[in-house]
Write a structure and sequence with these properties.
This protein has 4 helices and 6 strands, in the order H-E-E-E-E-E-E-H-H-H. By secondary structure, it is of the alpha+beta class. It has a 6-stranded antiparallel β-sheet, with helices on both faces.
Length: 169
């Protein structure tokens, strides 16, 4: 297992990139919420990757990167990545950031105009990450099918289950 500081350092390097983008290209843009700052939230090891949330004044994305500078992230498809989390599967778009390397991202919030201040964005990003990693939020696939198998539309709204041999209307 890698040192947690490696994952945090990876997030900080990415945050530095977005701080430069904000300072040179995005500041004052109509899509920016200037009450927000750029911050790497909750960066940690996740299998062969580093996982965290990148908050900027114009987006908050769940991101997956290589574990350290100079290593390649094992993205099997150069355009997309699907990862299984305790709370379910998530699809990511893969891109390359010059000077940083490959990055897979999934939008959580964009634009960021719903957030009154940076603390609200930070709390939402942390909560989204923790929910994604919470196995209690992942419903077993068999549950929904099991419940639906004994119900038809009329029974659902009327509150009665069909008997095993009873035909659906």
């Amino acid at each position: 297992m890698r040192d947690l500081s490696d994952a945090v350092a990876r997030g900080e390097k990415l945050a530095d990139f977005y701080r430069r983008v904000h300072a040179t290209a995005m500041r004052g843009s109509a899509v920016c919420n200037e009450a927000l700052a750029v911050e790497a939230i909750g960066f940690r090891d996740f299998g062969p990757y580093v996982l965290g949330v990148m908050v900027t004044p114009w987006f908050a994305n769940l991101v997956v990167t290589a574990p350290s500078e100079g290593t390649e992230a094992p993205f099997p498809d150069p355009a997309q990545l699907k990862l299984r989390f305790p709370a379910g599967d998530v699809d990511f778009n893969v891109s390359e950031i010059e000077g940083f390397g490959p990055l897979a991202s999934c939008s959580l919030f964009s634009p960021m105009d719903e957030f009154a201040d940076h603390e609200a964005a930070r709390v939402a990003a942390g909560a989204a990450l923790e929910a994604l990693l919470d196995p209690a939020l992942h419903e077993a696939p068999g549950r929904e099918r099991e419940a639906a198998s004994g119900m038809d539309r009329r029974a659902l709204f009327g509150g009665r289950r069909r008997a095993a041999g009873e035909a659906a209307p």
